[in-house]
Amino acid sequence: MALFDEAPALEEAKVCLLGLQAFETCQILTEIEVPQEDWVRLTQSQFQPVAITEDFWIVPSWHEVPTGANKVIRLDPGLAFGTGTHPTTRMCLAWAAQHDFVSERVMDYGCGSGILAIAAVLHGAKHADAVDIDPSAVQAAEQNALDNHVAAQMRVGLPDISKGPYDTVFANILATPLKVLAPLLCGLVKPGGHLVLAGILERQEAELKEAYAPFCDLEISNACEGWILMTSGIKTVRS
After folding, report:
1. DSSP letters along 48-95, please?
2. pLDDT tens track for 44-87
3. Which residues pair with 229 in a beta bridge?
4. Which burial class, exposed, middle or buried, applies to 67 when counting CB atoms under 10 A from its CB (0-12, 13-18, 19+)?
């Protein structure tokens, strides 16, 4: 599907497409006239402030801050994952809201928008490393750190294990890469620290526990809409 501002542009596109060898067996099935809309405003209307707790909110830049919101992350939807609307992100944020990060060093591994690192700083972390292998995510996290006035407490960039260990490590990715990363992630957490894993379906609980068993004991600390949050207090990384 494609949108065109004017009929001549549509006709030109049809001629070009149907003249290509790759489209010689294709045909135009239908044309629909779409009413003019303020598409920016329409898109923005789909994203509302998200309450993590009574006083901790994720608020798009075009919205007013809700009454009673004492801690606010200003975040707009973009190329990087992590706006606070997905259950996995909300569970990580809820865990962060209940944790005392004062004087802690935190890593957000696979940071996407950087939302978890920002949340940790807002809740007292001394420093947070937000890392990702996706250049778009790194760019988005850098901008979000600036927009939320926490850039001085955050380092954004590619993963660098030499910066560890950390008091808390977040990894909101997916089950398969989390299993592969088990030794690395556990090695990044200092004894007495916390590992917080998300992007895991309820049916994947056993395989995650098995993957991390040589290093630490994982437990479910929250569940939402078929997803689970798994955490571990690292006593010592098993050898």
Report:
1. --EESSSSEEEE-TTSPPPTT--EEEE----SSS--S-SHHHHHHHHH
2. 456 789 999 999 999 998 889 989 899 999 998 776 677 888 99
3. 222
4. exposed
Q: Which of 9, 102, 85, 1 is nearest to 49 (CA)?
A: 85
CA distance 232 to 218: 5
Give the burial string for 82-107 (b: 16+ CB within 10 Å, else e). bbbebbbbbbbbbbbbebebeebbbb
| Beta-strand relationship, 227-233 and 56-59 | unpaired
pTM confidence score: 0.79
ω into 165 cis (within 30 of 0) = yes
Q: Which is nearest to 233 in space by CA: 183, 168, 184, 164?
A: 168
Q: Which class does domain 82-233 fall in?
A: alpha beta
Give the bridge partners for 38, in sequence order: none
The SS3 call for residue 12 is: helix
How many Å apart are CA 84 and CA 58, to the nearest integer?
6
Number of continuous H segments (helices) and E segments (strands) in the chain: 8, 10
Domain chopping of the chain, boundaries: 82-233
